[in-house]
Amino acid sequence: VQLQASGGGLVQPGGSLRLSCVFSGRTFNSYVMAWFRQPPGKEREFVASITWSGDSTYYAGSVKGRFTISRTNAKNTVYLQVNSLKPEDTAVYYCAADPNSIQDPDYWGQGTLVTVSS
């Protein structure tokens, strides 16, 4: 499995971005997908996850209501729409995949940097 994340960048507080992660190598709709992030100098943390069919989503409390995870199985892609960004959202964002549970994903992408600053 390979995961290729993109869409990060520099954005002002209150701004938005859409992160994308393209999955290849296996059957995409057999994998639970998730986004994690690692702020500068901190440990990696869970952001959001989505089930195989996309019918259930889960969010960290710090992003609930501002971030939306979605997937398009026909395009082998998972998205993270990030709105109302705050400086504390600055981090490298990673997509991850696992066939069963996202608590300890088998596969990780390379990360895309989101910087929120005025």
Task: Describe what you observe in this structure.
The chain is mostly beta strands and 118 residues long. The protein is built from no helices and eleven strands. It has strands spanning 2-6, 9-11, 17-24, 32-38, 45-50, 57-59, 67-72, 77-82, 91-98, 107-108, 112-116. Strands 2, 4, 5, 6, 9, 10 and 11 form a seven-stranded mixed sheet that branches. Strand 5 (45-50) and strand 6 (57-59) form a beta hairpin. The chain is globular and about 40 Å long. The chain starts with a strand and ends with a strand.
Offer a quick outline of the entry:
By secondary structure, this protein is mainly β.
> How far apart lie the N and C ends?
37 Å
Arithmetic mean of pLDDT: 96
Backbone structural class: mainly beta
What order do the SSEs take from the amino end to the carboxyl end, as H and E?
EEEEEEEEEEE
- Beta-strand portion reads over 45%
Characterize the main sheet.
7 strands, mixed
Number of strands: 11
Helical residue percent? under 10%
Shape: globular
What ranges have pLDDT less than 50 throughout 5 or more consecutive residues? none
Radius of gyration: 13 Å
Number of separate helices:
0
Write the layout of secondary structure elements.
Elements: E1 2-6, E2 9-11, E3 17-24, E4 32-38, E5 45-50, E6 57-59, E7 67-72, E8 77-82, E9 91-98, E10 107-108, E11 112-116
Parallel strand pairs: 2-11
Antiparallel strand pairs: 1-3, 3-8, 4-5, 4-9, 5-6, 7-8, 9-10, 9-11
